[in-house]
Design brief:
alpha+beta; Naphthalene 1,2-dioxygenase Alpha Subunit, Chain A, domain 1; Rieske Iron-sulfur Protein; 2 domains; seven-stranded antiparallel beta sheet; 23% helix; 26% strand; globular
């Protein structure tokens, strides 16, 4: 680690305090008119995580991505190319496919039988003579942009959108050391939440809430020295695990820090609840973080993954990247989880999508992910995420209260502020409708 990197990592999450807090109109989180503006001006123009390479790895694999009223069909063609189309028959507007699957050879509408090949070229129209002159070449499927970064497949309805690589800005270079290509998706969990998509996304865009909402996690993560950076469409925060929060004034024993990590992150090192601190395996001079990192390397070795190259810092420092509008990628040397917040049937409902990965040996075969959907009350995604889910309905109700006109944001929440400022640009809001400029300017 360079001296400059070490200095930056000692910076706190607040950075330079602003003169005033940033104020965001609360109605953005529940107004049908504002949600309609998002549908018209933002969602069709941004890159969005749709699925993973593991969903569409082989010719004939397909995946339907939905966001609000929009449906995009991602298909792996017989030539190996990945393509995306608006999921609509050019005849009467029927959806061509739903869900995901394999061994697709053509796209045939189940209503009247119009059929396209996997390149989107119209091939068959039953009783074609009834249409008179019907040039087949003039009715291809409407294409959407599709691109891949590491294991993630992104789509964009705007055919003139900037390239994905430009949209992601500094993120790919910043995390290149981690080798995300070696992770494989084993499952996605879509959780139906009684909250706006922005209410959901805000929760994984700041660490300010850890000291209150996550008492167990607070005992094993440094939420103070958590430097943040804003690049534009994207931003980043870092948090070191295996150490107690500096907010905790009473010293914690090594066993207490270990127990807190086991309670909140134990699955990452393959241990169950109440697993005792491994005193017998501890080497002289090792910190608790060193012990946790060693256990995690040993757990990875059981599935053939060699993490001897990774330092304790690379094992224990969580890098959290936000990509506008709705994605957060959390990763370290042996962990990758991607979260996405999506709009629901109305502004007071949304979806939290958790995309779960495991690092595998280089060249490991693809796994077909298990995709599950459930309401929040049936979801049990671990202690920390369950705590996040529990608070969301109350947040959404509170936003409606007549005396609550603005969300009041700290510079510690500047990734939330940055999301709103990007949103304002896409929605082309007038200055009077924008957030106040109390926080740090990106």
């Amino acid at each position: 680690m360079t001296t400059e990197t070490a200095r930056v990592r000692q910076e706190d999450a607040i950075g330079t305090p602003p003169q005033r807090p940033t104020l965001v109109p609360a109605e953005r989180y529940y107004s049908p008119a504002f949600a309609q503006l998002e549908v018209e001006r933002m969602w069709p123009r941004v890159w969005q995580l749709a699925c993973t390479v593991d969903h569409v790895a082989e010719p004939g694999d397909y995946f339907e991505y939905r966001c609000g009223p929009y449906s995009i069909l991602i298909v792996r063609g017989g030539d190996g190319a990945l393509r995306a189309f608006q999921n609509v028959c050019r005849h009467r507007g029927n959806s061509l496919c739903t869900g995901s699957g394999s061994e697709l050879r053509e796209l045939r509408c189940g209503y009247h039988g119009w059929t396209w090949d996997l390149c989107g070229v119209l091939k068959r129209v039953p009783n074609r003579k009834g249409f008179g002159a019907l040039p087949m070449s003039e009715l291809p499927l409407h294409a959407a942009r599709v691109d891949v970064w590491e294991r993630l497949v992104f789509v964009n309805l705007d055919r003139d959108a900037m390239p994905l690589a430009d949209y992601l800005e500094a993120v790919p270079d910043d995390i290149a050391w981690c080798g995300l290509v070696d992770f494989r998706c084993y499952a996605t969990m879509t959780i139906e939440v009684e909250a706006n998509w922005k209410t959901i996304a805000d929760g994984f865009s700041e660490t300010y809430h850890i000291q209150t909402l996550h008492p167990e996690l607070h005992r094993c993560v440094d939420d103070v020295h958590a430097p943040q950076v804003i690049w534009g469409h994207t931003g980043k925060s870092e948090q070191l695990y295996g150490v107690p929060s500096p907010h905790i004034k009473q010293p914690l024993s090594d066993e207490e820090i270990w127990d807190a990590y086991v309670d909140t992150q134990g699955a990452l090192m393959g241990v169950g609840e109440r697993t005792p601190f491994p005193h017998d395996d501890r080497h002289s001079g090792q910190s608790v973080a060193d012990v946790i990192a060693a256990c995690t390397r040993a757990f990875a070795a059981e599935r053939g993954v060699d993490l001897s190259w990774a330092s304790t810092d690379q094992m224990m420092r969580l890098h959290q990247y936000n990509v506008f509008p709705n994605m957060s990628l959390l990763t370290n040397a042996d962990h990758l989880t991607v979260l996405a917040a999506r709009p629901g049937p109305d502004p007071d409902h949304g979806e939290l999508v958790m995309v779960l990965f495991t690092r595998m040996p280089p060249g490991a075969p693809r796994n077909k992910p298990a995709d599950v959907r459930m309401p929040a009350e049936e979801a049990h995604p671990g202690l920390v995420m369950s705590q996040d889910l529990t608070v969301l309905p109350g947040l959404q109700r509170g936003l409606h209260q007549p005396g609550f006109t603005h969300v009041v944001l700290s510079n510690e929440e500047r990734r939330v502020i940055n999301m709103h400022r990007n949103l304002e640009r896409y929605l082309e809001l007038t200055e009077s409708d924008c957030t106040s400029r109390g926080g740090e300017t990106p």
